[in-house]
Amino acid sequence: MIRPAALVGLAICGWLLAVLILGSGYELRLMALAAASALMAIGYQLVFGQAGALSLAQGACFAIGAYGASILSRLGWPLWAELPATVLVPAVLAGLAHAPVRRLDGHFFALATLGFAVLVRLVAVDAQGLTGGANGLVGVPAFGRGPGAMLVGWGVVGLAAALALWLKRGGNGPALALVRGDADLARASGLDPARIRARGFVLAAGFAGAGGALQAHVLGLVSPDVADFQVMVGCLAMVVIGGRGSVAGAVLGALLIGHLPEWLRPLGASYRIAYGLGLFACLLVAPAGLIGALERIWPSRRTIGAPTPSPAAPARRTLRIEGLEKSYGGIAVLRGVTLEIRPGEIVGLIGPNGSGKTTLVNLISGLDRPDRGTIRLGDRPLERLSPDRIALAGVARSFQSPAPPVGMTPLDLVTAALAAKVGCVGFGAAAALDPLHRQAEGLLRRSPSSDIARALALDPAILLLDEPAAGLDADERDRLASLLRALADEGRGLLVVEHDMAFLMRLADRVAVLLDGRIARVGTAAEVRADPVVRAAYLGPAAC
Amino acid sequence: MLRLDQVEIRRGGAIGFALDRGITVLLGPNGAGKTELLEAIMGLRRPCAGSIRFDGTDIGRWTPERRARAGIGWCPEGRRVFPGLSVGENLELVARTSRAERRRRLDRVLDHLPTLRDRLGVAAWTLSGGQQQMLAIGRALMTAPRLLLLDEPSRGLAPMLVADLFQLLRRLADDGLIVLLAEQAVAAALQIADRGLVLERGGLRASGTADEIRSHAALERSLLG
Amino acid sequence: MPAELTTLAQLLLNGLALGAAYALVALGFVLILNATGAINFAQGDMVMLGGYAAVALARVLPISGLVLLPLVMLAMAGFGLLFSLLAWRPFRHRPPIFGLLATVALGLTLQEAMNAVEGAAPQAGPTLLGTGEIRFGPLGLSRASLGILIAGLVLGLAQAWLLGRTQFGRRLRASAQDSVTARALGIPVDRLIAASFMLAAALAGAVGLLLSGPYFVTPTTGNDLILRAYIAVTIGGWGSLKGAVVGALLIALFESVVAGYASSVVATAALYGAVLLLLVVRPAGLFPALLGRRA
User: Fold this and answer.
1) With contacts defined as CB-CB under 8 Å, which chain A residues touch B222?
2) Helix and strand counts by DSSP (H, E) for chain B
3) E strands along A481-526, which residues?
4) Where are the domains of chain A?
């Protein structure tokens, strides 16, 4: 079953061929310029489509490439030296621009890229000596009339598309989808969204630089118009209309937007209104772009082979928590929690609502930092590590709301975690998808929920489960109980936060009771059940 | 006045009961579905099946705003006062009446909750847990409800405050307010309640008068396993 | 006053007027941000639309800018309602990027539409207090700038009153802080969101008129303004109204002074440099938002 993207790719090749054979000089040139835009769009797809970050600097990087090519070729640089420079310079500058906002949220990133774009435009317009100021630079060595420009341009696009596809191959796909869909869940699965965004941004800049260089050589000149915000908006339109996240979509979008002025010429000056309206209509009706719409009509089915057997025994390590304290806004939630979870044992954690159970799990898994106290896995301290490092170190947690983020299937979710564990973080280093899929399938069959399967994918030494029995019926509970027992028998340590007492009573080796921010009692299930302090907490003082 | 028929907040669990006066306590361990049930009655959540009737009308399709306007008061888990607004603003903004009527209601509410009277200008986020709970109740009362839904109001409060809180609810119920109260402070709640409902895993395990529920084996089993 | 101080004071005074305009744009931006959680990239273009509305009305009605101001604001409020139906309603259940992109698309459409209808040549709008300059000792202030300052103050205070002292304002703030609970208490959150858009558009319209006299209107007038608003809200504290005003004033004063001593190019570059520095040092801004509740 051929995927729609591949069909679109074929159609594009057909279109190119038609223009090559039948097109006028003007049309050939239009195609060559579309190739330049396609390079920019393919790159943008890496940061916006894949990493899910709204960068507003792609047009600026395109401009840097165009100016770079013009300046260097006028200085007499040979082509083989000039081209790498036009790719590297924007990439390096992008990396520098990203550094200050690396750890910050999306809207800071957007602002930083916006600032970058404004500065680039300023330099283009005002640095007379370097960029020729408002007049730009002419006399850039250019392709002549004829098919040369188009052939070279689309040849480069072909290479770029292949590179982009290589960068997002294999396990990358689901991992990036998870980063886009839910950053916290991604971190809990061993992925670092900040690093992925940084890489996507720098790679995108390189692609844009190449596109700008191509345009400069097609036109034979460069002017400050290339640094206008129009270019950025056009790039955004290309990727949204073509299909966010798809290389074929980026190319398709570039071709459509590139030819729009021609097709709408009869409308006169108002043709550009079609731009905005088209983009709006696309957002409304086809949010996943044209490729997405096609994929909805012809979804591709995945066939997965037989699941691989479970991996070898995990490392056996003890989790030691000592004196953990945490306050929020002056209110002390945890007042000194000390607990140990040994390999092979299931520890239940109970306590009335508001006693701090979820806070404890959040602290161990790294979503928050304790005010005081230590958390050690074996001898390794975990309190200062980020959630993704903790997940990869061997402490995995499940969440109370088990559904995968919108647009991801359970298989994608588990595959993402597997990919993170195997070490493919971001672009370029990817594990082959099929074995990951098979492993994911096996995990999903074993687990009652996709979230638990995702946690298991990280092959944890310690598993933290936040109310795993919630919403399950009797049969599913039995299955869950046997799964948890089996996991413990494999040598893992489990901490199970639960309210369902019956479930814990027959499962847990030990039960810890969290009352008022401290562990009030630890013992077997029967001991805890009969303890007067515990009974008072649950049933009221009268019931002892 | 409130009637639930075969309501499923989770597949497999059917909940049905009717309330028309007094204080009814909703008990059960967490994860049993107490919050979900209250949210379903308020319209913040869609049950999988069943009907919810208020004064005889099926309100299943009504938005939360409409249900509030029809007389259902809301006091959610965690208080959820509007943090950036003052106590007075929190109270006044929910009243959808003329200014004069608003002032009258405010006076009556402050009579019930005197600790708020001195703090009208204070920002809500600076209040203690207990004061915020009082504010949340006061805010719900300002909507002039006929049925008041409360989700674990005693959580995080000192026992003496809990006693005051429950005494207030008893007084309001005696004045004619119907109260449906989800609670984990079992003993204290049952002392002021007229009726009890025990939820477990999304289904109704037991229902009866407060006395019946207090000694019901099902309650102990569901809480302690 | 010694000459250097006079120059500085003059630059600050000029910057203040521009800052008042920026502040109004930033206020509109924050209103929508607080109501919907989404960034309105078309806020600047709404200012541009207001400017053209002022130009068009001034052509037809030979009355002073002062009387035109409420008319333009009213018309723009109507536009704001339409805008909310296009940019917010269809996308409110989708991830926030859609709403953002929708505002980009609509802003772009507005720009191109005005380009097609009115052309790219700058057009002069009505003035509020007439032309010319008023002197305060060694300092001078153009009447236009004075008009902006006064209008900015009046509108700013009116907005503060609206948000701080009316039921409408309280409900708006409450919905921004917790829309789910607000709904459960009977507050018509959707209508309030539409009202936020209308208010933001009216403010934008006012700025459009105020700037159209001294600075003229072109289809791309909005681009610089949205950048300033975005920066103002970021350095002021994302979501803080006070912060947006302070941020806007700071930007205008900074730019005015640096442009006066160096050049406008240096001013813009220095502005972005300063913002990046601030992001490194204190990303939460000058008035950080309230700490979130922990479930």
Assistant:
1) 501
2) 9, 10
3) 493-497, 510-515, 518-523
4) 4-297, 319-402+449-543
What CATH number does the domain located at A4-297 have?
Answer: 1.10.3470
Asked if A499 and B184 come within 8 Å (Cβ–Cβ), the reply is no
Percent of chain A with pLDDT over 90: 30
The class level of CATH for A319-402+449-543 reads alpha beta
Residue of B nearest to C240 (CA): B84
A160 CA: distance to closest CA in chain C (Å)? 26
Report the distance separating Cα A313 and Cα A528, nearest Å. Answer: 32
Cα of A179 to nearest chain C Cα, Å: 14
Q: Please give the backbone phi and psi of residue A465, each rounded to the nearest 5 degrees, phi first.
A: -115, 120
Is residue C291 in a domain? no
Q: Which of B19, B48, B22 is nearest to B33 (CA)?
A: B48
Query: How far is the C-alpha of B63 from the C-alpha of C100, rounded, in Å?
Result: 27
Instruction: Report yes or no: A56 at the C interface, CB cutoff 8 Å.
Output: no
Mean pLDDT computed over A296-312: 63
Give the torsion through C-alpha atoms of A8, A13, A14, A17, to 10 deg.
160
* Chain A residues near residue B187 by CB distance under 8 angstroms: 539-543
CB distance from A269 to chain C under 8 Å?
yes
A284 touches chain C (CB under 8 A): yes
Q: Find chain C residues with C-beta within 8 A of B90's C-beta.
A: 174
pLDDT digit string, tens, across residues C57-91: 888 888 877 888 999 999 999 999 999 999 999 99
A85 closest CA partner among A67, A102, A104, A97: A67
What's the number of domains chain C is made of? 1
Confidence category of residue A544, pLDDT binned at 50, 70, 90: very low
User: Is residue C245 one of the residues assigned to a domain?
Assistant: no
What residues contact residue A296 under an 8 Å CB cut-off, 6+ apart? A288
Q: In A295-330, at which residue ranges do the beta strands (DSSP E only) sit?
A: 319-328
Residue-number span of the structural domain to which C142 is assigned: 19-219
The CB-side HSE value for A191 (13 A sphere, CA atoms) comes to 36
Q: Model-level pTM?
A: 0.85
User: Is C36 inside any structural domain?
Assistant: yes
Domain membership flag for residue C170: yes
* Confidence at A176, pLDDT banded by 50, 70, 90: confident
Q: Which residue matches tokens 């209104």?
A: A273
Q: Considering the domain B2-224 in this protein, what is its CATH number?
A: 3.40.50.300
C280 to chain A: which residues are within 8 Å by CB?
100
Please indicate whether, in this complex, the C-beta atoms of A501 and B129 are within 8 angstroms of each other: no
User: Which of B30, B80, B102 to probe by mutation at the C interface, max C CB count within 10 Å?
Assistant: B80
Nearest to A115 among C100, C116, C276 (CB): C276
Note whether A108 contacts C275, CB cutoff 8 Å: no
